Amino acid sequence: MDQAQSLREYMHRFNIQQEEKHSARVITITSGKGGVGKSNFTLNFALGLNAVGKKVVILDLDLSTANINILMGITARNSLANVLYGQKSIWDVLEKGTAGIDYISGGLEIQDLMELDPNTLSFFWSQIQELQTYADFILLDTGAGISKELVNFILASDETILVTTPEPTAIADSYAVLKTVLQFTKNIPKFRLVVNRAQSYRDAVDTSRAIKNASSSFLKFNLVTLGFLMEDVHVRRSVRSQMPFFISYPNCEASKNIKQIVYTFLPDSEEFPSTSTKGIHSFFEKIFSLRK
Description:
Blueprint: H1 3-21, E1 25-31, H2 38-51, E2 56-60, H3 68-72, H4 80-84, H5 90-93, E3 95-96, E4 102-105, H6 110-113, H7 118-132, E5 137-141, H8 148-156, E6 159-164, H9 168-182, E7 191-198, H10 201-219, E8 224-230, H11 233-241, H12 245-248, H13 253-269, H14 279-291
Parallel strand pairs: 1-5, 1-6, 2-4, 2-5, 6-7, 7-8
Antiparallel strand pairs: 3-4
Helix pairs in contact: 2-13, 8-14, 9-10
């Protein structure tokens, strides 16, 4: 083996090691029903992570009612579909939103991925891989409700945040999401619960306890509570003004709640070694295998 070849192999191993040291964690954020504030939570949670120095990309996969861009008052010019068909690079569709947060509109159906020819798939794969070392976290804002696509997203992700409210229908639908997902896997997925729009701390605790007790008793699943967001008039004001409350009202109760959720979330997430992180490339690879 000549010296040049040895150097090339060393650099190849070095690049692989560098990628393993920094691999974006893919977090699916979902809810059992619409109207619980899932997208608003996703955006402000991303801003909270960004505020403590974490690089975050939001991928809006709620194709029926995509509204992350609306909450920021921007119009998405491109989407992941443009990358899928080789029209744009991943950097072309990566847009800047409020406070410099990175955002990509989904704009495609998962079944579209199954129809790719090898060359198109290779290009798409290479572009998706670029995000692997670009971000610390990739947040997938999914559609509400239970579907096969949602189950696939959850099983392919590193973890899932389940957003609910104290409403009985939201609690029941959140439990249904857990029950459905657990029927499709022998591995225990990582779920964390966020209770949104609670009228009081007791209201939030009671809601969390109801879902956790049902999950433990009937599903034998230990659901972890990530945090609570109290009902806050500033949230509705921010939605109307299309400026996230974490930015427009940094000292309101909801913003303080987001900060607490971020502080709770980060230490636990960073306990995972890089080898346990699936990442965005593995996420799409898993989606393919689950659809076959």
